[in-house]
Amino acid sequence: MDVPDYAKQTLRQLANSNDILHYKLYVDAADSVAKAFQKEQLLGVQKRLLKLKGFAMTLPEDRVNLDNWRENKTEHQRRLACVAEGNAYVHSRSVYDVTDEELKTDCGTVACILGWVASDPHYKQEGWSAEVASEGYGVWITYKHPQSRTERDGYAAAGTYFGLDHYAAAKLFSPTLSTDLSELATFLQRLEIVLDHVDKRIQEVEA
Length: 207
What we know:
Blueprint: H1 5-15, H2 20-56, E1 70-71, H3 73-85, H4 100-105, E2 110-111, H5 113-117, H6 121-126, E3 128-132, E4 139-144, E5 151-153, H7 154-162, H8 166-173, H9 183-206
Antiparallel strand pairs: 1-2, 3-4, 4-5
Helix pairs in contact: 1-2, 2-9, 7-8, 8-9
């Protein structure tokens, strides 16, 4: 957690004082600063997750597939047929090589939530991108922080951007084994659980 210089200076002054009252003020001030920044951080996480929820709700339900970052129509249908028939699925070179333009214009292409995120103008401006892998087996979904230029990919990118630890990010965006709900509905259900947890943490900090 980054504390502004003015806050650091105030805390140092209070900490260096021999006065018991000043020491108590130091402890209270440190706690207050920590809570304020924790709340600010949580509100930022909440804002981005709510934005993600709104974005996800605009996606065509039948084109959200959490199994892969992106996949083209022909190979998607062939893979499903192989699985249904109990046959081994061997993908061709072009299975996952879906560009942003193809995802937007080919109504048969599918993508996971992050695959869609990386194609959206708002998120692209934020630092998200999707590039076809040099070996021709899919795309790299990455997030590069605009200021630090630190780059992350996959679930690590999701964790960094949305303020989640790696485990939580993986659980939120990973493939689903559920057959009762669509994959988009499953994701939105998971997201509500995360949002509820974040809301409770904000309430705890405010208490």
